[in-house]
Amino acid sequence: MSTVQVSVDRTSRTPLHVQLAQQLESAIQGGDLPVGSRLSNEVDLAEAYGLSRPTVRQAIARLVDQGLLVRKRGVGTQVVGNSGQVRRSLELTSLYDDLSAAHRKPQTEVLRFGIAPASPDVAAALQCEQGDRVLRLERLRRADGEPLALMRNWLPPEVLDTDPNTLAERGLYELLRAEGVRLKVAHQTISAQPATTEQARLLMEEPGYPLLATTRITYDDHGRAVEFGSHLFRASRYAFEHTLVHR
Question: Phi and psi (nearest 5°) for 132?
Fold first, then answer.
């Protein structure tokens, strides 16, 4: 039976079962709990982690719902992997950073790179005039060799000095931080939209298949809009998750 080191913060607003589930998920993603391994029973886990049995049961149920664990009669609770899906917390991080942190291998194909005139939507997002020069990026992001996201970004040209080869090797937020840009806050919307023929081809889905769509406007510590992103994710391979706290 398998256990991993767990440390929960009882002063945190995040419920204990969520903290436990997140740490077990990290252990699964990182290989500390390999596919096929079995967890100790709830009583033993509760004793090992100093938690109540209902707390452990809730955490296990959460991971079962995520497809990371499965309960088998006569076998117990077994690790079945991540089903190929990337789960991402709602934080001001880049997909590249999140994939790296989850021990997934990010790969980037730069589809478009250059200066373009700002459309009305881009101008409104970046607080500039329509037709102003902006840096336009379009990339296909893969995780472990599998297409995951089609990402389009627009930035004021002065905030980033890079080239397609560098952009293919490093994350956008990493490059911005290296330029001294301090990202502070972002406004993001999440919706769904059907894949066009070209989007479906790039993401290896069928035309019309629903994609998870996000738009994000990111501001620096001076309140300046430094990035406008419009991204499409494979809904079968990608999910956002967050914890809601009553105030």
Answer: -65, 155
